[in-house]
Structures are given as C-alpha cells and as structure tokens.
Description:
The protein has 592 residues and is of the alpha+beta class.
Amino acid sequence: MFDKVLVANRGEIAVRVMAACEELGCETVAVYSDADRNGGHVDYADEAYNVGPAPASESYLDQEEIIDVAQRAGADAIHPGYGFLAENAEFARRVEETPELTWVGPPSDAMETLGEKTKARTVMQDAGVPVVPGTTEPVDDADEVRALGEEFGYPIAIKAEGGGGGRGMKIVRSEAEVDDALESAKREGEAYFGNDSVYVEKYLEAPKHIEVQVLADQHGNVRHLGERDCSLQRRHQKVIEEAPSPALDADLRDEIGEAARQGVREAGYTNAGTVEFLVEDGEFYFMEVNTRIQVEHTVSEEVTGIDIVRWQLRVGAGEELTFAQDDVEIDGHAVEYRINAENPATDFTPTPGQLTTYRPPTSIGVRLDHAVAQGDEIGGDYDSMIGKLIISGEDRAHCLERSNRALEHFDVEGVHTTIPFHRLMLDDDAFVAGDHTTKYLDRELDDDALETAVDRWGPAEAAAGDGSQSTTAEVAVEVDGKRFDVVIEDARSRMTAEHADGGSASGSSSGSATEGAAEVATADAITAEMQGTILSVAVEEGDEVAAGDVVCVLEAMKMENDVVAGSAGTVESVPITEGDSVDMGDTLVRLE
C-alpha cells in the first residue's frame, strides 16, 4: 500500500478520498487554490500546498505544478478524484512516467481509448455492446453535421469527445441550428476538457439514463456493482441518483451489467469506472465510459457494502479483487440528493454566498459527503455543490420516506439551495413512481411549482443580487409557553439598513464591483445575473438586437449560459471582452 497520497482535487470528493487513505494508513496531501485557502479538504489533509490562483486553469489544472508538489511532498501516488484532471489521459501518462509516482486510476492508454467518445463507441461495438446510431470519427464542419442530420433524422446531438455531465453537448432540432450548436459544443469542449473534437449521434427523446459501476484489477478480474438510475436531470446535469434502478427488470439488469463488464475488459481497463447507457422501450444503448470515480458512486457503496474508493487505492497498489461477481449482492435502496447552491425558482442559477446557517440532518439511514461548515463561503469559482445527502432504506418506498424526514431537517441559510426542489420531487407522482426520464424536468416540471417550493421550503435569508440579504427573516416566539417559528416579511438586515443610509457595515464604502454595477445599471443595461467569466461576446457597438438575441455567453460554476437581450435596441456600448470576470449585477451590454 502507498505511504502518502496526493489528492489532486478539492471539496467533498477530496475529503472522501482522504478518508479512505486514512483507513488504509496512508498520509494525505491536499492541493488548493487561493480561493480554497480555508477549504475543508485543506483542513482534513495531513499537509497542504498552494498550487496557484483561483482560476482552475492556473491551479487545479496545472499538471506540472501538481506533479512538482507531489514530488516535493514525498507522495508515492496521485488520486485525481473526479472532474479537473481526473479524465485527462495526458496527465495520467505524465504521472505514470514520473519515477516513484503511481496513478490511482485506469491506464492512460485505456483512458485515451474510452475517454474519447468516438473511440469508445468503436471498442463497444467490437465487444458486441449496442450503441446509439452515430459517428465513430470526429466531425469537422457544419455541412457534415447537416448531412448526418438528414441521415439519422432530427433531433441529433453534437457532443464533445471529452465531455460529460451535459458540458459540450448541444441538441440540434433543425438544419438552421447546426452552425451555432457546432461552434458552442467545440468551444465548451476546448474550455472544459482541452479538446474541441466533437461527434454526432441520434438523440433519443425520452430515455432512462442508466449507468453501471465497474471495478477491474491488474490481474484480469472485472466486476460490476450493479446499476444506478441517473435519469432525473436538468440541463443534462444529474440532480438525483439512485440504486438500483426502478426501471429495470432482472433480465435487463443482468444483460446490461454483463455488457459493461465485457466492454471494459475489451479495452484493457483497470480501476474504477462507469459505463453509461440510455434505455428506451426495453432496449439499451451504450453512451459513454467515465474513466474515474463519479459523484454518485455513493449509492452503489450503500447498496453493495463495497467501498469503491478504498478499492481504487488497493487496485492502484497492485492488489487483486477479493470478491467474485456472484458475491456482489444488492441490498436495499439508496438515493443521492445533490445539495447545490442554486435557486430552483430562477432556472437553477448559482447563488454564491456565506452559509450563515448549516445544520445537516442525522440519524439512521443518513450519510452526508461534504467539506463545508457553518460560516463557510460558497464561491463562484468552481461548481455549486455544497454536499451530497445519501439516504438508504430497505426498499425504494422506505428510502423515499426517510428522504422526506432528512430533507425536512436539512437547515441551510445564507444561500438558496436545491433542497426545495428535492422536497418537491418527493411529492411528484412521476418521480415517486419511478416513471421519470431524462427529459422530465425540462418538459414537464412547471416553473410555478418550483417558485412555490422555494417560497415554502427555501431559506428565510439568502444573498440577493445587490449583496444585501433578502427581505424576510425567521424568528422564534413563545405563546403560552409554546414555541412558534415566525417568518417576518420585509425584514431588513442591519447591513442593508446601513447601506441604505449611505454607508457599509464597517462604516465605509467597500467600492465593490457589484456596488458599482448597481449604480450604473439602468433599464437599458443588460446585466450579469450571476458571477462568472465571459466566454464570448456576440455583439459590438452599433449592432441592432432583437428581444431574445444572444449578446454574450457567460460561464458560471462550470455551466455555459446564453445572456439574451430583454428588448430590442441598438448597442450603445460593450464594456466587457472575452475572458473578463464579472460579478452579479455588472453591466454587460448597454442599449440606446
């Protein structure tokens, strides 16, 4: 076993890996950016090293710096977690080629083969695994995409080869949408994965998203740990995952599990990975392989009792799997709820801010993977996840009952979260019945229902766009000795009141970008609804725009967002350029 492991990640997954290392007697090394100086993973590790400024490209994605830190710290292995460099075959190869360092993950050759979607499709076809109709080579130009649209029939999906989680994927429903979608998919692929190659496949309209967890060692043993159902998604991002899937019968479950084993065996894959499928009308189709641990690995651990991260480390150290496929049993049911700092009532926009209250639930059947505490800041530099709530029970119905109890007692103030959305789903007939598909939220969920859920279950106090607090507050009162929690409308915090008098909380002006933007914002200004980075600017001074036209593209918390004009007009000024960082409320484009 390793003596010291560097975890090349942050947040809850870094802590999860470090916990497994600790149990195995390995010392741990954290890396952190300037923005994460006080991060939970930094506190948890035995030692920690700063690897650069807040932008991931200058810190968590700096391959040379991370390897240098590993060597300086005396680490003998690097575990990448998920995201960042976890699926970067070039980084894996650099680690493999560095003396006295071991890559805790699949071989770089297998990552390259399965990480690029077109190569993965070829491997799976050769292994006899059904695939969605599409290309096995990257596409280069819009005319080629249009030809494929005619061949497969619209809609089609343009996908980044290195993509995942909906990033780098664009749905094209007509020939007219091809040019913009191709450009956007290539741009996201380059921005997030350093690879602008894309491929095209037929887009299934209402599938289930089913993925199979696999473990493979360096001695030829390949096991699957059952499937997970990840069908509940918004903007192609998973929000609730569960195991096992309520949609599979025993025969289909066995068939899809064996297909996953055969596919990774064909690729010479080792360590942990996930084979993802789309299931529709009783048929399944290979979609992609995630060559890493995944966010939702937790539910597989809960129903199998197998510690996947621990086995990642053991396999990386050359150990052989000690259990046969027949030893893997699915016991009970588990559901994972992603607790993100997002407002469901405003299309799940990120809501960075301070966790003024953070009291997670406890008791039987509750697991929480997180790396935050009350008083911590949820910044806008990375993804919006606060933590993962994992609930287990005897069966799905029992699990959902426990979920209701746990979510009711998950108390977060200071930022909006996805908790109201999760509570809404537990009262949703389609979700409770297990009939939802990947398109359910986008097509069926009513915006008014989300607003009602946030009003009912959202925080009494959350950061507003101008930096003040919301105008409601919850106080406890006693009447005849009985306690009541009362929500007071139009209650302003002391800070807001002081700002209204012209001063700051400290009695002086902070001069923040947000305050400046609030001063200059007018009815004719298009402003940023969230903190982020400008990926592209689509207009210039003098251009005529119509209501709904895209004026720029804003990346926030790893999501690409089109910023559109609310009304028609002529562009008077564009105070932003590609690559600029903007705060919520900043003026992006001014119209005459």
